[in-house]
Amino acid sequence: MAGIMGRKDIVAFGLCLLVVMASLAAETDAATCNLSSLMPCLSAVEGAHPRAPSASCCKVVKTVDKNCLCAQLKSGSYPKQMVENALLLPKKCGRTNLAGFRCGAYTVPH
């Protein structure tokens, strides 16, 4: 019976479909957790006296996953001053649910 799927084939196909869908969902989440999504905040984290965060920066800060933010902070890719400034963004943007959040050696201030 070539061309006709048996019960095992249908189950296997369904499992494969679920795996593909889960992979796509993970890729979508990963796409929102990347450096480019945080670019609107660059001027608010650079230097000893950074600019106030823009509305577009705060929009990102208010919606970014805390684990994404933590991964960026812990990556070791940024100067200490930049990390310290980034830790202040949730408070500056009015995102209070991150106050006290611990990320490795870092803590988001209250």
UniProtKB/TrEMBL annotation:
Signal peptide: 1-30
Coiled-coil ranges (or none): none
Pfam family, one: Tryp_alpha_amyl
Signal is among the record's keywords: yes
Keywords assigned: Signal
Domain Bifunctional inhibitor/plant lipid transfer protein/seed storage helical, residue spans: 33-103
InterPro entries assigned to the protein according to its UniProt record, in alphabetical order: Bifun_inhib/LTP/seed_sf (IPR036312), Bifunc_inhib/LTP/seed_store (IPR016140), DIR1-like (IPR039265)
Protein name, entry field: Bifunctional inhibitor/plant lipid transfer protein/seed storage helical domain-containing protein
